[in-house]
Task: structure prediction
Amino acid sequence: MSDEQKAGGPPAVTFMGSDNQAGAHPKILEALASASTGSDSAYGEDSLTANVKHRLNEVFETECEVFLVATGTAANALVLSAMCPPWGAILCHQEAHIHCDENTAPEFFTGGARQIGLPGDLGRPSIDEIRGRVAASRANGVHNAKPAVISLTNSTERGTVLNPDEIAQYAQAATELDLALHIDGARFSNAVVSTGASPADLTWRAGVDALTFGATKNGAIAAEAVVFFNKKFSEEFAFRRKRAGHLWSKHRFLAAQFDAFLGDDLWLKNARHANELATRLARGLSAIPGIELPWPTQSNEVFPVLSAATDAALKGAGFDYYEWPVMEGMVRLVTSFATDPQDIERVLQVARSSSLAA
Result:
């Protein structure tokens, strides 16, 4: 109990709205401090960046092109600019982060390409909808944006994951329709842990051309990797990154974060902790009368539908989270590498008490 609580003040705030609210992992902070000792080459020519590229080649079991940036928005928008022309279209789920949460950054960096949000179950765009939209666009020729890319999210915005077989189905459709395939992997670590599949099986072996591999939500301060498996899209990417103002001069501080993130499997350990606590939270909530979980919990996001009384009780106990207006009463609770298991038990205790009181 905090001093404020002992004194009868309001409860301390426990943030569970996003994994972005967590701090940085101590090993990443240590890596940054170490990188600050001495000097090294600038603009990505440093030894740490070279090491990160080598590590990612090992992680994905193939030779891939790697570019580091500081934000997920920059990573997604820039990679899509390399895959989609200004007159093109990006097909994604209607709730995808690139479509709903990155303002018009993808349109800006692509030079005007159109995003087309499509319906589909559990955060995945329907392949039938993709085929239908491509056919309709092509029937209208130059009067429509030309479909160029399918963008998936793994883990999705509904906390679900795609396994290699499911990704391969999109890849097959992309090949048949002459489209590229991108994955927004802001929570790619959580998808790897959840599926038990290798990073290679979740990407290039399934037919993925490029991946946005996020570290920020999983223990870094600001570090994302753009990973190209199809090198035809990476040829000019270094120029795109520079022109956009996203090539850090002291690039080694981006690389230091990713080096520590990949070292000793920290990225998997952090994601495993977050996923396990989300599973514990979901199981506990689903056992409480009056609380529904419409979607399966497969990563580190939980989407319960709460009564007004339970919502008020949790907020009164100091829990901060996002309302999720897909359904009335739905909220989003997110766990991270830094989530305290005691906080999960406290959520469940408050929710149970609220349910009994009702």
Q: What stands out?
A: The chain has two domains: 3-23+266-357, 26-264. The first strand starts at residue 14 and ends at 15. Residues 3-23+266-357 form a domain with the Aspartate Aminotransferase, domain 1 fold (CATH 3.90.1150.10).
